[in-house]
C-alpha cells in the first residue's frame, strides 16, 4: 500500500494566495478503490484519477479478452458527457457485463468528459481553477520510477545522493533542450497547436455578433466563447490549447478585421518556453565529497537496521504486463517495417 500511495503525482502547485491549497492538485494513482477515502480525507478539493492502464489491466483479467480496449479507450478520451454516454451505450450493446463492471467506477476518476472545470470564466479559472491537464496515464511517474532503479536499493544517504545527482543532470538536460527550441511554445504545445490549425481549415465558424461562434465541421458542431475562452467540446479548458473550433473562430475573427494577435498568445502559459525556463532556473547545487562534510555533533550512534538477505537475486525491473509486451512487440514490428521501407526507397 505504501508503494501505491507514493505513486501519486502532483501536477501543479497552487500559486495564488486566494486558491484553496489543493484545488489545483491532480493525483493519479493505481486503480485501488480503497485509496478513495484516504485521498478524499487528505486532499478534499483535489482531483483524483486512476491510471487507465491499471483499470484496463483489471478489466482484462476479469473478461479475458482485449476486445473491450477500443470501447474503454474511447470512453476515457471522450471530452463531453454526450460523447461518453454514446460510447457507453455501444459497450452495453456489445457486452452488458463489461458495461456494468465499468459503471461501478465513478467516471470522474478516469474519463476526461467528467474532469471538473471549476469556473466558466477564463481569468477566474486562471486564479482558482484546476491543473491544466487531461492526462489519463501516470507515465510521467513511471519514467522517474524507472530512472531510480539503480539507486533505490542503496543505503539511504547514497540513495538520496543518487536522486540529487539525477535531478542535477535532469535540470541541465532540460535546459539544453529548451535552449535549442525556437519557441515561443514548447515542442508539445507547438505540435498540438499546428495540428489544430490544420484541422480548423475544415471548419466554418459563424459569428453571432457578440463573443460567441457556432463552429460547424465534418465531424461535429460546437460553440466557442472567445471572451471566456471556452468551447463546448471542453478540450480548450482541459488542455489550455485552442482546439480546432477555437482556431476556426480565431480565423473568422481575423477575417472580420478584429485584432486577434498571434495564436500562441491564446495558449496557456504552462506551454510557453519562457515559463519552462523560469521553472528550470532553479538549480540543484553540487556538493563536496563525503571527506569534506562537517562531522555530526549528535551523541547517538545510528546503527543500521538488521538486514535479512532474501534468497535469489533481487528483482529490480517492474514486471511488464501482457498488454505492454504486445505493445512493445507491435512497436518493434512497426519500426522494422519502417526501416525496410526506408531501405527500399
Ligand atoms: Zn472545441
Would you give an account of this structure?
Helix 4 (69-77) packs antiparallel against helix 5. The protein folds into three domains: 2-128, no CATH class; 148-180; 187-274, no CATH class. The chain has 345 residues and is an alpha+beta fold. The protein has a four-stranded antiparallel beta sheet with strand order 3-4-5-6. Strand 5 (221-225) and strand 6 form a beta hairpin. The chain has 14 helices and six strands. The protein is globular, with a radius of gyration of 24 Å. The chain is 46% helix and 7% strand. The structure holds zinc ion. Zinc ion is lined by residues 222, 231, 233, 235-236, 243, 245-246.
Q: Could you outline the blueprint of secondary structure elements for this entry?
A:
Blueprint: H1 2-5, E1 26-29, H2 35-42, E2 47-50, H3 52-63, H4 69-77, H5 81-94, H6 96-103, H7 122-128, H8 139-147, H9 156-180, H10 187-200, E3 204-207, E4 212-216, E5 221-225, E6 230-231, H11 235-239, H12 244-255, H13 273-279, H14 322-344
Parallel strand pairs: 1-2
Antiparallel strand pairs: 3-4, 4-5, 5-6
Bound molecules: zinc ion.
Quick summary of this structure?
By secondary structure, the protein is of the alpha+beta class. The protein has helices at 2-5, 35-42, 52-63, 69-77, 81-94, 96-103, 122-128, 139-147, 156-180, 187-200, 235-239, 244-255, 273-279, 322-344; strands at 26-29, 47-50, 204-207, 212-216, 221-225, 230-231. Residues 222, 231, 233, 235-236, 243, 245-246 line the site of zinc ion (ZN).
